[in-house]
Write a structure and sequence with these properties.
Shape: globular
Number of strands: 5
Largest sheet: 5 strands, mixed
Structural class: alpha+beta
Order of helices and strands: HHEEEEE
Distance between the termini: 39 Å
Number of helices: 2
Helix content: 10-25%
Length: about 90
């Protein structure tokens, strides 16, 4: 299932405004696969960045899952939290 532009906009809005973004997004978009990790665990360039999070699109349509930059191929989201600098 492709990730619609309206869904991306809603995801961006939640990431920009909610401290509990991961839980809220999993509940709001149950049809997407969600992976949460530390930003240092991902070497690819993020699709977008919001506050403390890098957002990656996950394509799991083929045999192996892969990061993609094409929302039409996205079946999930990798949400990577960056370390906060104080």
């Amino acid at each position: 299932m492709a990730l619609a532009a309206i869904e991306l906009a809603e995801i961006e809005q939640v990431l920009a405004s909610s401290p509990q973004a991961y839980l809220e997004l999993r509940q709001k978009f149950p049809h997407l696969a969600w992976i949460r990790c530390d930003a240092s665990d991902v070497t690819e360039t993020p699709y977008r960045s919001f506050g403390a999070f890098d957002l990656y699109l996950l394509d799991s349509a083929d045999h192996c899952a892969a990061i993609t930059d094409d929302p039409a191929r996205a079946t999930g989201i990798v949400l990577a939290k960056r370390a906060t600098v104080s």
